[in-house]
């Protein structure tokens, strides 16, 4: 029977060296008694006849990579059986490398339970360590100095010391616990496994903090189960406000009832002055609803369809109120939605380019869309255009009809199938209607072409050039129709 004594305060190396020696000598787990240093009776920590075997190049185990960090965590546990448990797992891994995957195995289940306990204790340490600032030297020069007392369940001080070094690099601090201590002076991080004594950290700020805590305590939001789950009661004893908590909990229900029964208080005097100042301001004059400006103002609050929920703003038409030509697109794109203006995105640039090439002046046209809000699908950081459905087009038709009534254009150019449907309710193929002027009510003419965004979506360069040329010819036809109102009947009849 072998007996080995370890310090057992979170040092993985001492267990690893002993385990390696036993494993090399093919010593089975049941032949070893693991003890804490100080419990031994022999001169060197072993009873007569019991020795740690010398490594003799015997059995070796090629353990899975996950075992090392797993064991380093478990060795921090305070349970004295952890040494024997880890050696049993190490021994059995030599026979079954997949052992740790069997969560129902008693040894694996116990080890995972210990690992979870250490990780939870480590989390609680990072959350509940509360530093107290210490006075600076008499000359008042130097870095800020802080001290903290914490009582962990396990030997985790060395494990978490680096966290506090990164988190509180700008100050000198000392963390004391019954299971070790850590110190940072701005240059060197030092840890000790020796048990520390609890210092007296009370000072004149404690009473101020207790008063503050009692006044910010909200009895209406009290959830005792959640509170004790996040901060177990064992941590309360080192909190200055701990003795207040039972009374605050006990009186919480009464305080909630008192708050509910208490009448509303009168607002502060300055509130009445602000209200009087607001009432004295002149009411802004709204634009006439029978003008484009008034119609645009109304459209800014449009909620006729769900598209307004996601869109940035209503994108209304723009241009002269007496324009002879009205351009009707489909809907705003991403750029238009952000800018609040129609045809200013990539498709708008193509449109402006072709207008320039065909001698048309955009400033003489009224430009709008069949749908006034941007419909899209979010994909990562991008907003991808989606075609509006028939219901959305029909709900938005009211605004388009009012724009036509106010502008009274002689020629309307519909760009894209959505614009055609909004103006005529026709669902025919766009290629069958394109380039053919059609009469509308009110002695108006409708000219149909593609939307410039269609040209941007064509992948083949040759096809794109051909379609761009067709679009130029359509705009040239629009130019001819614009030149004189008398030319429209002649072109239609020809």
UniProtKB/TrEMBL annotation:
Uracil-DNA glycosylase-like domain: residues covered: 316-476
Source species, domain of life: Bacteria
The UniProt record lists the keyword Plastid: no
Entries under InterPro entries matching the protein: DNA_repair_put (IPR023875), DUF4130 (IPR025404), UDG_Type-4/5 (IPR051536), Ura-DNA_glyco_family4 (IPR005273), Uracil-DNA_glycosylase-like (IPR005122), Uracil-DNA_glycosylase-like_sf (IPR036895)
GO biological process terms, semicolon-separated: DNA repair
Protein name in the entry: Type-4 uracil-DNA glycosylase
Keywords on record: 4Fe-4S, DNA damage, DNA repair, Hydrolase, Iron, Iron-sulfur, Metal-binding
Any one Pfam family match given in the protein's UniProt record, by short name: UDG
One MF term in the entry's GO annotations: metal ion binding
Family: Belongs to the uracil-DNA glycosylase (UDG) superfamily. Type 4 (UDGa) family.
């Amino acid at each position: 029977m072998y007996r080995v004594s370890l310090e057992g305060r979170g040092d993985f190396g001492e267990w690893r060296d002993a385990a390696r020696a036993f494993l090399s000598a093919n010593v089975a787990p049941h032949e070893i008694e693991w003890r804490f240093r100080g419990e031994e009776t022999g001169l060197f920590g072993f009873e007569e006849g019991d020795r740690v075997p010398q490594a003799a190049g015997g059995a070796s185990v090629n353990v899975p990579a996950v075992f090392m960090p797993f064991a380093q965590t478990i060795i921090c546990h305070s349970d004295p059986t952890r040494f024997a448990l880890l050696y049993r797992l190490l021994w059995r891994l030599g026979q079954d490398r997949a052992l740790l995957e069997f969560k129902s195995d008693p040894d694996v289940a116990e080890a995972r339970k210990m690992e979870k306990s250490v990780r939870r204790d480590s989390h609680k340490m990072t959350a509940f360590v509360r530093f107290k600032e210490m006075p600076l030297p008499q000359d008042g020069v130097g870095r800020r100095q802080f001290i903290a007392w914490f009582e962990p369940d396990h030997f985790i001080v060395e494990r978490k010391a680096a966290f506090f070094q990164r988190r509180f690099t700008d100050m000198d601090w000392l963390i004391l616990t019954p299971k070790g201590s850590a110190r940072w002076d701005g240059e060197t991080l030092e840890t000790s496994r020796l048990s520390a004594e609890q210092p007296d950290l009370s000072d004149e700020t404690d009473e101020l903090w207790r008063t503050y805590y009692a006044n910010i305590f909200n009895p209406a939001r009290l959830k005792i189960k959640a509170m004790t789950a996040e901060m177990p009661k064992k941590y309360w004893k080192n909190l200055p406000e701990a003795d207040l908590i039972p009374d605050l909990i006990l009186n919480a229900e009464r305080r909630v009832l008192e708050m509910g029964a208490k009448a509303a208080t009168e607002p502060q005097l300055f509130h009445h002055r602000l209200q009087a100042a607001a009432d004295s301001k002149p009411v802004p004059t709204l634009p006439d609803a029978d003008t484009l400006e008034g119609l645009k103002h109304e459209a800014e609050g449009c909620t006729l369809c769900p598209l307004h929920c996601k869109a940035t703003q209503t994108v209304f038409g723009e241009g002269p109120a007496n324009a002879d030509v009205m351009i009707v697109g489909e809907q705003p794109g991403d750029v238009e939605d952000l800018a609040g203006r129609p045809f200013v995105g990539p498709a708008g640039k193509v449109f402006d380019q072709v207008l320039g090439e065909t001698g048309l002046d955009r400033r003489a046209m009224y430009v709008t869309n069949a749908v006034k809000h941007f419909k899209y699908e979010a994909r990562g950081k991008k907003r991808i255009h989606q075609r509006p459905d028939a219901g959305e087009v029909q709900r938005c038709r009211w605004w388009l009809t009012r724009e036509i009534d106010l502008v009274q254009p002689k020629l309307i150019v519909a760009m894209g199938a959505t614009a055609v449907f909004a103006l005529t309710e026709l669902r025919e193929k766009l290629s069958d209607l394109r380039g053919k002027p059609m009469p509308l009510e009110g002695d108006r003419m409708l000219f149909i072409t593609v939307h410039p965004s269609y040209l941007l979506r064509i992948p083949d360069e040759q096809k794109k050039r051909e379609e761009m040329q067709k679009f130029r010819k359509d705009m040239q036809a629009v130019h001819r129709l614009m030149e004189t109102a008398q030319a429209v009947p002649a072109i239609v009849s020809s």
